[in-house]
C-alpha cells in the first residue's frame, strides 16, 4: 500500500510545479492610455516650470549686471569729479603758499582785531559761506559784533569752514574761503567776508563763480589798485588753499576746552561761542548794548 501511494503522488507534484511556474507573480500590468497622458503632462509641467525659472534668473542676472555697471559709472564719475575739485582748489606749484597775516597762532581762525590783546571776551564764529543759516545770523548779528570790535569790547575770531563742499558736491565753500583769506593778505578780510554773505545765492548749493570771487566781490569790498592785483594773484594761485584746508580739518577735530558739546571738534555751522561757551542764537540780542550784556552774563564776566 505504501509503495502505490508513493508512485501515484509523483505525477501530482509535477503538475503542481508546472502550474506554479506558468503564473509568475512578478509580471507588470501594461499602462493605460490615461496613465501615459498623465505622465506626459507631468513632464511638460516640470519643463515649463524650469523654463520660467530660467527666464527669471536671466532677467535677474541682467538687472544685477546693469546695476553693477551703473554703480561703477557713478563711482568713476564721482572720482573724476573729486579729482577735478581737488585740482581746482590746489595751490599752484609755481608759487609759495601763504598763511594769512591775521591768522590765529593755532591756524584755526582769522582775527578781526588782532591788535586787541587784553580782551575779557573772545567770540568765535564758525561759519560756512554756503550755509543759509550762517547768512541769517551774520545778517542779524554781524553789525553789532563789528561795533563791539570797533569799541574794543570783544575779540572776534572767524573760523571759516568749508565742509559743506562735500555735502553739496562743489568747491564753493573752499574757493570762497580762499578768496576771503586772500583778502586778509591786503587787509580787507572783514569787508570781503561781509560781501560774500551779502551775495549768497538764494538756493543752497548754487555756489559762487570765479568772476564773483575774483572780481566783483573784491571791488565791492573796496580792494583796489596794487592791493587788487595782489589779491587776484593770491586767488589765482590758490595761495591760501593749504591754510584753508588745514583750518577746516583742525576745527573739525579740535575740542573746545570745557564745552562737552564740542569735545570732538566743531562739526556744524553756524556755531557761535564766547569764552568757549555756546551762544544761543535764538536768544542773543541783536543790538550792540544788549549783546554785550548777554555775552558778559554767559561768560561770567562782570
Tell me what you see in this structure.
By secondary structure, the protein is α+β, with helices and mostly antiparallel strands. It has a domain at 110-299: Glutaredoxin (3-Layer(aba) Sandwich), CATH 3.40.30. Helices cover 58% and strands 7% of the residues. It has helices spanning 2-22, 33-89, 132-151, 164-168, 172-184, 189-198, 210-220, 225-236, 241-253, 288-299; strands at 110-111, 122-128, 155-161, 271-274, 277-278. It has a 5-stranded mixed β-sheet. The longest helix is centred in the N-terminal third of the chain and has 57 residues, at 33-89. It starts with a helix and ends with a helix.
Give a quick precis of the structure.
With 302 residues, the protein is an alpha+beta fold. The chain is built from 10 helices and 5 strands; from the N terminus they run ααββαβααααααββα. The protein has a domain of 190 residues: 3-Layer(aba) Sandwich (Glutaredoxin).
CATH-derived architecture of the domain at 110-299: 3-Layer(aba) Sandwich
Q: What structural class results from the helix and strand content?
A: alpha+beta
The gross shape turns out to be: elongated
Count of extended strands: 5
Distance between the termini: 149 Å
